Amino acid sequence: MYAPISAQKQEARVAALEAEIAGLEKELGENENPEVIVKDVIRLLHRYNEAKDATQILIGRLATLKQTTVRQIHEDLDLRDSD
């Protein structure tokens, strides 16, 4: 069961949400299309992941050539786990 909400509280909540939406739209930009922004971010993430994958392949090959571990190469190059 839901507790009853007064009409005043409900109107205040709607007003607060509308103000939040207006603030977010202003921050985003008036003429910006969120779908275009999301598609662009996804495209950039794909490029980042491809570059990271290629880098990991090269690090693996370097480790093989140096007869060491990938972890050791990461340490030698001062690469953190979060990179």
Write a concise keyword list for the protein shown above.
mainly alpha, 3 helices, 0% strand, 83 residues, single chain
Mean pLDDT: 89
Main sheet specs: none
β-strand percent reads under 5%
Flag low-confidence runs.
none
H/E element sequence: HHH
SS field, number of helical segments: 3
Distance between the termini: 48 Å
Task: Indicate how many domains the architecture comprises.
Answer: 1
Radius of gyration: 25 Å
Proportion of residues in helical segments: over 70%
Short description:
This protein is mainly alpha-helical. It contains 3 helices and no strands.
Describe it.
With 83 residues, the chain is mainly α. It has 3 helices and no strands. It has one domain (7-76). Helix content is 75%, strand content 0%. The longest helix is centred in the middle third of the chain and has 33 residues, at 34-66. The chain is elongated and about 70 Å long.
What secondary-structure arrangement, pairings included, does this model have?
Layout: H1 7-28, H2 34-66, H3 70-76
Helix pairs in contact: 2-3
